[in-house]
Each structure stands twice: as C-alpha cells, then as structure tokens.
C-alpha cells in the first residue's frame, strides 16, 4: 500500500480535524452527505488523499482516528475525485479478508467517481496482481459505475466480455461474483461466455448456483431441467469413475471418514498425489508419502480396528500400483471431478492440488531435464493459478479445455523421462507391495512413523 508520512494530526483544516473525530459508523447504514452536512469541496481533495494514504492512521488501533480513512474515501467518492482512482487501485493488492469494510466500500467509491474510472479499472484488470480480492473489487466497481451512470452499460459489458474470453480459471470466487454482476445488469448478451465458464468448472457454485439458475434469473428458462442444488453439505462435484467402481467409491469413503485438517479428502486429489509420487525422479517410500497424504505425522488417522487399518492401507497401495501399471501401459488417465448435474462440467483443481502436494517430495529435478519437465507441467500450474506461472497471461477460454487434455499428455511425458532417468540411476519404480506386510521392525507402511510391530502389526 502506498502511504504518506504527512503528519495528519497537525492539519489546520477544520474539516479534516472533524474527520479525525467522527469515529465509527454503523456498518451497512447509509453514508452521510459529507458535502451538504460538513461542507467538503474539491479544494479538500489533496488533504483527503493524505488521510486516505496516511501511515500514521494505519498504525492507530483504537479511538475515532482509526475510522478517519473510511470517512476520507467516502468523501472522495462523493466529490467524484478522479485524483483518488490511482491511490485506491494501489491499495487493492494489500487488502485481505479482514478488510471487509474496504472490500465493500472501495468499489462504491470507484462507482461514484464514475466513467473516468473505467479505463484505469480495465487496465488494472488486465495486469498481473497478487490474489483474488483485488480483482473482485474491480468487478464490483465496474457494476457500481453502471448503477450510478446507466449510460456506461455497454462499455462495462464489453469489459466483462473481454475478461470472460480470457478468464482466470483458478479464481472461482471472482468468476462467481462477476456472473452475479452480470445478472444484476441483465446482460443477456453475455450468456454464451458465462455458460463456457460454468462448463470449465471455473465458477464457485455456492455464490449463485449453477448455470440453470443463471438462465432462470435472466428469463431464458421457465423451470429447471435437473434437480436444484441442495445445500446440505453434500458435494456438488464428485470424482469421476466413483459411481461405476465400488473399490474407488470405498477409497473415497475412507478418505472422507479419516481426512482431517490438511489431509487429502477426495479420490481426485489422491489420484493427483499418487501420480506425482509415480513421476518422481527418485523412489519415495510409503513411510514418507503416507504422512503427507494424511496431512502430517500429527494427523495420522486412528482407525476403528486393526482389520480396517489393513484394509485401508491395502486399498491405497493397490490403487497406487494400478496407477503405475496404467502409466507403464500408457492407458493412464487422470481422475478429475465432474458436476453432479452435468458430467460435461469438469473440475481439475483438486487433482492439480494433489499433484503439487506430491511433487513437493521430489527434491531437485536433474538439471538436464528440468526445462522439459517444467514445460510439461505448465498446464497444471496454469489451472492452479500458481505464483510461479503468469496466470494473468490469460489464454482464450476455448483453449482452456486443451489445457485439461494437456495435463494428461504432460504427465505421460514426465513419467517416461523420469523412468528413463531412474533406470540409469539404478532407482527402480516406486511400487508399493501388493500386501502391506513388512518386517516387524520395519517402519509401518501406514506412515505413522512407528515400527510395524507397534502399529498395524499388533
């Protein structure tokens, strides 16, 4: 955040002094008319910006002064102060979830400033910034500009269209908020682009629901074709192949039952994790990978019985070995998730998250193959919105589906070159035993860190 070191408390401006003493206002209440009630004018803009950017006030934790910056940005909005656009945009990237008042109100301020903010907002949106929140404020600000200036509707719709054609696929909350703004604007002309975003699994369904809800809201559908979403804790996206494979369904059931905290809790994420283990440049022992699977040594599950413990471990190892068999025979395909009401809507984030979790166990990639491996993993980094990949070098939405397919091809390439490397190094395939039977004094394959005789071997 850009701040100024001007000593705000030494101001001679009585209106600024008043601003420092106004104190807290009720959240959600209408703003005072600062111009009519307190006499603020354009001549005060310079000092208002000093208040807004003040480092002194950021360090105040109690008293009426801590609310002065809120009053300042409200006044700047009511004055339609174009000079405030750049300082506000500079602040956005520093906002966190705790800055709820700023997240709610800065979009209103930019909306009040009006059409002069359109070009800077569009430019900001097209640039690379850290985090999702700053983009959400910009999306809301554009809608607010239309609310206060209806003649800007076509311009804002075009800005939204350009984003939808090259979206940030990993920012599902942003995409949901954006679609909410499109509904508020009744922008029916964007329905095709919105539909594509839903089909890619790039929208947080908890914000507005699914695409059928969008169609209903826009008057394009009289009633639902599929059952409505039920917000009862049931997952809206399910791992592929679960419904047709009892063994896979059983594994996911155990993951849901025993996953806690940072543990892997879906078959899709497990598939990504095990794929990374199989593609490692070195063999990774079960005693190393299992604690990572369960979220750490302190999060290892306490099974209901010794028999169930053996069943879970055996099922996991059987699944892992089958995955390697499929990679070896080139029949492997990733297990992504699909939306219950429409199997054409694919969600890849869980799988990618699992893969990157497993990749952290790789260690250093040999320098002679590092560029090749990294190039083949670009689709995963893109879909995850990794900070190591320029996510805002956005690709066209019709090309995103190719990225999903490219994940599969990239993994096959990485697996092949890693196996060649391990053959040369004398480090064979990472294959788990078909049965979780080990020596009594060996580390338990469940990953607890205990000896087998003190854990699952009891």
TrEMBL record:
<dbReference type="InterPro" id="IPR036255">
    <property type="entry name" value="YgfB-like_sf"/>
</dbReference>
<dbReference type="InterPro" id="IPR004027">
    <property type="entry name" value="SEC_C_motif"/>
</dbReference>
<dbReference type="InterPro" id="IPR011978">
    <property type="entry name" value="YgfB-like"/>
</dbReference>
<dbReference type="Pfam" id="PF02810">
    <property type="entry name" value="SEC-C"/>
</dbReference>
<dbReference type="Pfam" id="PF03695">
    <property type="entry name" value="UPF0149"/>
</dbReference>
<protein>
    <submittedName>
        <fullName>UPF0149 family protein</fullName>
    </submittedName>
</protein>
């Amino acid at each position: 955040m850009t701040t100024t070191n001007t000593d705000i408390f030494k101001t001679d401006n009585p209106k600024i002094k008043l601003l420092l003493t106004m104190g807290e206002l009720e959240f959600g209440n209408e703003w005072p008319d600062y111009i009519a009630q307190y006499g603020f004018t354009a001549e005060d803009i310079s000092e208002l910006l000093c208040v807004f950017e003040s480092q002194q006030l950021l360090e105040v934790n109690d008293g009426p002064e801590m609310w002065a910056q809120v009053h300042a940005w409200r006044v700047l909005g009511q004055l339609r102060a174009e000079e405030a656009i750049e300082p506000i945009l500079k602040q956005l990237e520093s906002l966190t979830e705790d800055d709820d008042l700023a997240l709610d109100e800065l979009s209103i301020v930019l909306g009040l400033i009006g059409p002069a903010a359109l070009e800077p907002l569009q430019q900001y949106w097209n640039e690379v910034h850290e985090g999702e929140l700053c983009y959400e404020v910009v999306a809301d600000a554009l809608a607010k500009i239309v609310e206060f200036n209806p003649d800007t509707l076509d311009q804002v719709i075009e800005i939204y269209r350009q984003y939808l054609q090259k979206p940030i696929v990993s920012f599902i909350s942003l995409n949901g908020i954006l679609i909410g703004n499109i509904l508020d604007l009744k922008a029916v002309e964007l329905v095709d682009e919105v539909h594509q975003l839903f089909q890619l699994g790039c929208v947080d369904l908890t914000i507005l629901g699914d695409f059928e809800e969008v169609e209903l809201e826009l008057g394009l559908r009289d009633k639902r074709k599929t059952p409505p979403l039920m917000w009862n804790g049931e997952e809206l996206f399910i791992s592929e192949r679960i419904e047709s494979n009892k063994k896979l369904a059983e594994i996911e059931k155990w993951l849901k039952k025993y996953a806690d905290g940072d543990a892997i809790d879906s078959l899709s994420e497990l598939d990504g994790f095990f794929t990374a283990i199989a593609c490692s440049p070195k063999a990774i022992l079960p005693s190393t990978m299992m604690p990572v699977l369960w979220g750490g040594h302190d999060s290892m599950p306490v099974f209901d019985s010794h028999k169930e413990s053996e069943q879970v471990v055996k099922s996991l190892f059987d699944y892992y070995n089958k995955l390697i068999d499929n990679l070896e025979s080139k029949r492997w395909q990733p297990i992504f998730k699909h939306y219950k009401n429409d199997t054409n809507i694919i969600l890849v984030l869980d799988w990618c998250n699992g893969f990157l979790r497993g990749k952290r166990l790789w260690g250093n990639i040999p320098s002679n193959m590092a560029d090749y491996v990294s190039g083949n993993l670009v689709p995963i980094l893109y879909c995850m919105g990794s900070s190591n990949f320029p996510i805002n070098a956005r690709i066209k939405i019709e090309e995103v589906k190719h990225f999903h397919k490219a994940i599969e091809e990239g993994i096959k390439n990485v697996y092949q070159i890693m196996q060649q490397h391990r053959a040369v190094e004398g480090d064979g395939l990472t294959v788990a035993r078909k049965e979780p039977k080990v020596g009594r004094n060996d580390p338990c394959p469940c990953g607890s860190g205990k000896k087998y005789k003190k854990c699952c071997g009891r």
